[in-house]
Amino acid sequence: MSTPLVGIIMGSNSDWEVMSQAAKMLEEFGVPYEAQVVSAHRMPDDMFRYAEAAAGRGLKAIIAGAGGAAHLPGMVAAKTIVPVLGVPVPSKYLRGEDSLHSIVQMPKGIPVATFAIGEAGAANAGLFAVALLAREDAGLAEKLEAFRARQTEVARNMKLEPLK
Ligand code: RP5
């Protein structure tokens, strides 16, 4: 396995169903990544260690997902200058609106690039990490262009059922 360029972290293994969409996207593009649970409130020291080591280990982006009072992306961003992409994971009672607000409302000075709630957000965070890496990797840029072109073709070929 090559050295990971993207770190995917999440608050719980219950987030994996959503966060695996980011991993699938990175796999599709052949980007080396790692994925693990780093809980902000249950493993705060591990979280800081992860963030502090990220740049030195060669991570170019960190995709961080959490649900509820989702402080993981913001706290990780506070301890590293590696770009942090935040994914709000749907929560049981507030359906992820709590997660979204916790992640998106970062005070000025520590940015977290915040994505949509749930699977689309996780997949788009993966795609965004690919786009970041593609700035320095012509082969990856070509794959991203091809991905977009295929998507365009699918949309162009969409047929609508006639009214009955
Ligand atoms: C957060 O609390 C996690 O990110 C997860 O979305 C949520 C629930 O965690 P579990 O109770 O399923 O471990 O920390």
TrEMBL record:
Binding site for substrate: S12, D15, R42
Domain PurE: 4-155
InterPro entries (UniProt xref): PurE_ClassI, PurE_dom, PurE_prokaryotes
Known pathway: Purine metabolism; IMP biosynthesis via de novo pathway; 5-amino-1-(5-phospho-D-ribosyl)imidazole-4-carboxylate from 5-amino-1-(5-phospho-D-ribosyl)imidazole (N5-CAIR route): step 2/2
Catalytic activity: 5-carboxyamino-1-(5-phospho-D-ribosyl)imidazole + H(+) = 5-amino-1-(5-phospho-D-ribosyl)imidazole-4-carboxylate
UniProt enzyme class: isomerase
Gene3D superfamilies given in the database record: 3.40.50.1970
Assigned EC number: 5.4.99.18
Keyword vocabulary terms for this entry: Isomerase, Lyase, Purine biosynthesis
GO MF annotations, alphabetized: 5-(carboxyamino)imidazole ribonucleotide mutase activity; phosphoribosylaminoimidazole carboxylase activity
Domain of life: Bacteria
SMART domains from the UniProt entry: AIRC
Pfam family, one: AIRC
PANTHER family noted in UniProt: PHOSPHORIBOSYLAMINOIMIDAZOLE CARBOXYLASE, PHOSPHORIBOSYLAMINOIMIDAZOLE CARBOXYLASE CATALYTIC SUBUNIT
Family: Belongs to the AIR carboxylase family. Class I subfamily.
Cited function: Catalyzes the conversion of N5-carboxyaminoimidazole ribonucleotide (N5-CAIR) to 4-carboxy-5-aminoimidazole ribonucleotide (CAIR).
NCBIfam families: purE
Stated name of the protein: N5-carboxyaminoimidazole ribonucleotide mutase
